């Protein structure tokens, strides 16, 4: 992750803001930028930013900038699951994000994020994979989700999961039909209408909430400075119904069992709110249709 | 094993015959959800490694070796920022490099040695779980290499690897705050599922969700946590974590005895 130079005094300032000095005093729910412990920074989401993809989204969360492109391609289903399509994730940490990612430097972080994404989607209910099947054992849709990290400002996992959900919402897969000849050879026909496509249901796509432990309290959506003060974090992947699909401890430190239970509850609470706001924004953007003002990369 | 160009590999599309066989495996037998399989642990068995450990739990067999401390490569990082909590600056702290490998014959299907993403992920999980326990500040500019080799996968492989790695580190004489004990859990699919402690390979394959917990028993701190699947609401996951922590505490006395025996053996073998 990008490193930031923090002095001891700055660290103490951040930690004391988050946790109260005296336990009898009212809790000081105050972080350096004035947010409470469970508040997110302002999130900008825009979909359909890249024209060559089946779906794309760009998310700006504070200084973190993520671009996700989804391409749907036809391929053969996996042997163990012949009736389903699947998703492939690839994460690229571009050298623009921080100088440490130059050359192969960002590969480790990229594989870590990609593995986490595989884990959170590794269950039956997140994405309806059966709808991606064209003909069993022979053809299916493979969704290549490519994540590009443009700028790193802390809290990468959350921003990436929001961007992936928005991109999957925006994905339009062309409708195909399988025609069988008399000899039994199959032919795939793409419909002529470019707007005739199937959309994925993203109701159950989870979002990641990272809770960083600072002192003995935990905060949501940590900036780079706050991440430098925290020894351990818990990554929880929550769906809109409050179902947890993945849990992972990140960082060099250890966590108390009681604080893990508290963090899970906070993660579920914050995750539900995040999902409702994201759904509202995505539906609103969709309803604007062609009247929508495209901001793109200049805003 | 990596980059092995001389060995003749099987054809690209080779598959095991079980895929075409009728599905005749019975469902795993009902059992007490809190039972732990009997564990055999032995430390100090490899002559070439600084510390080593072998752990067997049911059908899972893991061998772990530790080497180091030796000079850290890529030491040109310069004076990094001071770590959180006032420890030595990042450049002066020691590093723990973990490697997790599966033998090609470990699972039901043969997997060629560069195992791809899964081995990297488990190696990272090993590192994140062992770092809280090792006093890396006492090994400035050095690196410790931990390599775990899974000989047979009989369920809860990551948990067994974690425990074996901690035993190997202790056997190597690396300064640690506490041992790390790992425990695996899985949740069967179905209407009223319960979490099963220490699942076998069959139970893990049919599971809807799996979880591995790593605990430092004396300090009672969770060193590592990795879980995924359709676990259900947070209460269900919380119950699983509690069950896992309890399992780890139950396993601790066996590991203590193993280390004591290894120390006695080393004592007896040392020339007077």
TrEMBL record, chain A:
Molecular function terms, GO-annotated: RNA binding
Location(s) in or outside the cell: Cytoplasm; Nucleus, Nucleolus
Record keywords, A-Z: Acetylation, Cytoplasm, Exosome, Nucleus, RNA-binding, rRNA processing
Record Pfam families: RNase_PH, RNase_PH_C
InterPro entries named in the record: ExoRNase_PH_dom1, ExoRNase_PH_dom2, ExoRNase_PH_dom2_sf, Exosome_comp_Rrp42_subfam, PNPase/RNase_PH_dom_sf, Ribosomal_Su5_D2-typ_SF
Domain of life: Eukaryota
Segments forming a coiled coil: none
Cellular component terms (Gene Ontology): cytoplasm; exosome (RNase complex); nucleolus
Keyword Nucleus: yes
Residue ranges of domain Exoribonuclease phosphorolytic in the record: 40-174, 204-269
GO biological process terms held by the UniProt record: rRNA processing
Sequence similarity: Belongs to the RNase PH family.
Quaternary structure, from the entry: Component of the RNA exosome core complex (Exo-9), composed of EXOSC1, EXOSC2, EXOSC3, EXOSC4, EXOSC5, EXOSC6, EXOSC7, EXOSC8 and EXOSC9; within the complex interacts with EXOSC2 and EXOSC4. The catalytically inactive RNA exosome core complex (Exo-9) associates with the catalytic subunit EXOSC10/RRP6. Exo-9 may associate with DIS3 to form the nucleolar exosome complex, or DIS3L to form the cytoplasmic exosome complex. Exo-9 is formed by a hexameric base ring consisting of the heterodimers EXOSC4-EXOSC9, EXOSC5-EXOSC8 and EXOSC6-EXOSC7, and a cap ring consisting of EXOSC1, EXOSC2 and EXOSC3.
PANTHER family tied to this protein: EXOSOME COMPLEX COMPONENT RRP42, EXOSOME COMPLEX EXONUCLEASE RIBOSOMAL RNA PROCESSING PROTEIN
Name of the molecule in the record: Exosome component 7
Native species: Equus caballus
From TrEMBL, chain B:
Localization annotation: Cytoplasm; Nucleus, Nucleolus
Residue ranges occupied by any Exoribonuclease phosphorolytic domain in the UniProt entry: 36-175
Keywords for the protein's UniProt record, in alphabetical order: Cytoplasm, Exosome, Nucleus, RNA-binding, rRNA processing
Source taxon at top rank: Eukaryota
GO BP terms, alphabetized: DNA deamination; isotype switching; nuclear mRNA surveillance; poly(A)-dependent snoRNA 3'-end processing; positive regulation of isotype switching; rRNA catabolic process; rRNA processing; U4 snRNA 3'-end processing
MF terms in GO: RNA binding
Location, primary (coarse class): cytoplasm
Ranges that cross the membrane: none
Keyword Cytoplasm applies: yes
Cellular-component GO terms for this entry: cytoplasmic exosome (RNase complex); cytosol; nuclear exosome (RNase complex); nucleolus
Region ranges (Disordered): 1-35
Similarity comment text for this entry: Belongs to the RNase PH family.
Protein's UniProt name: Exosome complex component MTR3
Species, as recorded: Equus caballus (Horse)
Gene for this chain: EXOSC6
